[in-house]
């Protein structure tokens, strides 16, 4: 059985690895934001995290088919926002249209897939931080 010190070292290593990966991911996300022209639809950059989700049509994001195209479909990045006060709660917004799936440049397809996955990665950290703050606030009140 590993000692408490060994377990602490392992945990510290994992945490620093996640933080390093997160910083690299954030830089990639900023670069792709500019390269894909998403800044023309959403400004400033940080506003992309106001969306509840970002989805992709025409290209698979499933683990077993990641990056595979859907023949006859169009590649489009769709952002989903939520407004509790509105009559229609969910709104879809196109962040980018990239043409027919079977005609998309492989480099462009890789950038689009990378952007969506990188956004989801960063969004998951922000969601974790949000719920951690809520839990802390709740526990302080109790």
Explain this structure to me?
The protein is α+β, with helices and mostly antiparallel strands and about 140 residues long. It is built from two helices and three strands. Strands 1-2-3 form a three-stranded antiparallel beta sheet, covered by helices on one side. Strand 2 and strand 3 form a beta hairpin.
Q: Whole-Å distance between the termini?
A: 37 Å
Beta-strand content: 15-25%
Largest sheet: 3 strands, antiparallel
Give the uncertain stretches in residue-range form. none
Number of helices: 2
| Structure class | alpha+beta
Radius of gyration: 19 Å
Lateral arrangement of strands in the main beta sheet: 1-2-3
Order of helices and strands: HEEEH
Can you count the beta strands?
A: 3
Averaging pLDDT over every residue, what do you get? Answer: 92
Apparent shape? globular
* Proportion of residues in helical segments: 40-55%
Annotation keywords:
alpha+beta, 2 helices, single chain, 142 residues
Strand and helix layout:
Layout: H1 4-35, E1 53-57, E2 74-82, E3 90-100, H2 106-141
Antiparallel strand pairs: 1-2, 2-3
Helix pairs in contact: 1-2
Summarize the structure.
The protein has 142 residues and is α+β, with helices and mostly antiparallel strands. It contains 2 helices and 3 strands.
